[in-house]
Amino acid sequence: MRRYDRVVGTRKFPVFSAAVVAVSAVLALLDAVPAALSVAAYFLVYLATSYSYLARASESFVCRVEDARLELREAEAVLHLQLTIAPRASLAGLRLSIETPPQLSSSGERTTTALKLEPRSGRVGVRLLLPRRTGLHVLGPLTVVLTDPLGIFEAPVHELDSLVIRIPPKAGLAPLARWYGLVRSSSGARTLSPGHGVEYHSTREYHPGDELRHVDWKATARQGRLHVKVFEVETPLRVLVVLDARSYMFVGSPRSLFEYGADLAAALANYLLKRGDRLVLLVSTEDGVRRTGELRGRRGLVEVLNTLSSVAWPAWAPTLRAEPSARDRGVGDLGESLGSFSAVVVFSPILDERRALELLELAGRARERGVEFIVVSPLVTFFSTASRVDDVVYRVLRFNMVSRELRSVGTLERSGVRVIRLTPHRALERVVADLERVRALKAR
């Protein structure tokens, strides 16, 4: 925490000074010299009183952030701050300024939001609306400023260097639940093939060796022959979900490639974990690779959301062109451990031939071990940049980028790799359909 022990003049100071000089000059020209002197004297007394009062108040003024809470809504996040102020400055006004990063501002640049405070008591509540953008964001510095009633002087008190907030993605499941009808009170991954399980599948005639506890007495009474119940076989999958979160994934406004990928990864994790499957999440960033352990159930979904919300946005504004970076060591070294998974789902753009060859090599290793390999590729060229000027340049460069990406995607598809080009409303259904196909093959 850092304190300012000086009072400074605001932009209103020269305006008020010029206005007082002008009024005094007009009164003097009208032979109202006493009135002109009174106006000038009143202004000088006000300046001296306000300056001394703010100087004394700033010496003992203390502001603490007692509580910071983030409320998540459908399209926005609300930051609630609870401040404690002592002593209460009865003759001074308060203003709170918070710097917000480019991705949380409407202009696409780092901006400062100023909020006026009226502390009738020693506690002040602040409510700041922010767009709901997945990831880790750094807000700050947070500055509390004491001002006089006319706003001529101010005495800032810097209380907090930065405030870190984490916004998780939406873990939607409703479209998939309507499609498959798989949200049930009992957990467990099931297919529509008969076997030993806990969920009823069908009824068939009794065969020697069937257990008597599975006899369907209603069907037996209705058919006149002994029938037994058949249950759905439980076939859990072990899926590796890989999300590319390197610098080029943060291009796009009002939503970036990373946010689309995080939403899809969270929704897929929610679906698999509700099905009773096991999941491992790997997030590749510029700082390294984050890999969770084997996740299950509701706790596993919480771990997925925490991991995705901990991915920090870059400090710089999104670039005009999404350029590929160095080889993804974390994903490239997965070849030796692929045999323990049923399927691998990679959310990553294919920016050039080099990235296509990396994924092709990994897909070949997965194929050797009988692992289903699925690539969900968001086309970078269909995402806009943050500002209008940058977007104009981006559109001019788009033709070459489209050709390069489509060639890279074609290289994988011709090699037999399952590539799903990102269409946000249907990509998840296609991934789930492929995983259900893997589950059906495994149950045979």
Percentage of residues in helical conformation: 25-40%
Secondary-structure element pattern, one letter each: EHHEEEEEEEEEHEHEEHEEHHEHEHHEH
Q: Please give the alpha-carbon distance between the first and last residues.
A: 64 Å
Radius of gyration: 32 Å
Which band does the percent of strand residues land in?
Answer: 25-35%
Main pleated sheet: 6 strands, mixed
Structural class: alpha+beta
What is the CATH topology assignment of the largest domain?
A: Rossmann fold
Count of alpha and pi helical runs: 11
Note the overall shape.
Answer: elongated
Number of strands: 18
Q: What is the name of the CATH class of the largest domain?
A: Alpha Beta
Overall tally of domains: 3
The CATH homologous superfamily of the largest domain is named von Willebrand factor, type A domain
Low-confidence stretches: 177-194
Strand order of the largest sheet: 15-14-13-16-17-18
Mean pLDDT: 78
From the 3D coordinates, which CATH architecture of the largest domain would you assign? 3-Layer(aba) Sandwich
